[in-house]
Specification:
With 223 residues, the protein is mainly beta. 2% of the residues lie in helices and 66% in strands.
Amino acid sequence: MSFAYQKDRAIVLNDAGDEMEVATDASNTLLWSYTYGVTDNLDVFINKARQGNPYAGWLNTQVGAQWLFAGDQNRGWSFALMPSLILPVSQRSEAKGLGSAKTNFELIWISSYVSSDYELHFNVGYSGNRYSRSIEDEPRRHLWSVSVAPIWVLNEQWSLGVSLGAATNTDDTGKYTPFGQFGISYTPIKNVQVGLGVMVSPNWRKTDGSRSTTMTAGLSYDF
């Protein structure tokens, strides 16, 4: 389970390109995720999220699987594929900005290296971005992302990590948006993990300070 607070900052310009005002927007989301190991190499999962602000309501539900097709996920290199379906919300919820009223598909390729002192993860992902209604600023329908995340295992309880990457921008302000994230994980007791993270996504086509900042707190329990 995790809670995320996101704040977007954008500069509003007039026709001459001069700054008029700074526009900010904030949202918060609570996410529940359940994963079940069908076999040693196959997990299935379901993600359910609810937004609290600016409009309260349930977001798209995601169901999928993660297939470890090569390597050992506990030592050395491993490779996995994670396909999933993003189930639609109602058209009324879509009109409020609570997700898409069409079914979308996501596929993520994962490569990881794990040792006793550190981990290294590479992800390449694709997802559809289709909507049931016509939107004034038509978003891009095909979204790509790539990231690399080194993690330092300090001891049995503490880990530190960063994630650097880029993702397709959904609007026309730039084809890609870079992001950087810092996170810390703490295991107070066996099978319980607490995590904190901060992610910043600047708009690299602008130098006016436009950016998105997300703070996340999470709790996981393995049983």
